[in-house]
Write a structure and sequence with these properties.
Strand 5 and strand 6 form a beta hairpin. This protein is an alpha+beta fold. Helix content is 21%, strand content 42%. The model has no long low-confidence stretch (mean pLDDT 94). Strands 1-2-4-5-6-3 form a 6-stranded antiparallel beta sheet. It has one domain: Hotdog Thioesterase (Thiol Ester Dehydrase, Chain A, Roll), CATH 3.10.129.10.
Amino acid sequence: MKPLDRYTLEGLNTLSRGTLMESLGIEYLQVGEGRVKARMPVDRRTIQPAANILHGGASLALAETVGSLGSMLITDMGRFDVRGAALSANHVRPATDGWVYADATLVHRGRNTHIWNIDITNEEGDLVSTARLTNFIIPREP
């Protein structure tokens, strides 16, 4: 069985209970080899207090969530841990309401690192933020 075969969307969303992902309202929509899609509401939990627009930190949390899950889904988690190494993003336009959607695509799958591109769009499909995430794949101690 490949690592991805163990997971369902319902199971992955259940694992988010009691975590930051639940606090921010992040919901996984699609998972596949080298691809993860999720959505997050633009609401009181995820906006900046003064400007009433999506907080850049919430966008980064969404980006790291989908990219890290993507690495976990293609890694033997019994033998390896996934740890974020670097995350950078450019915020292109504000989001003020509704949902934003993250689409993570695997760019590089090495033995020790994975690199993901994550585009975050609004409900109209307009780019809100784009991010690049590097994950370390670390062997677990026996």
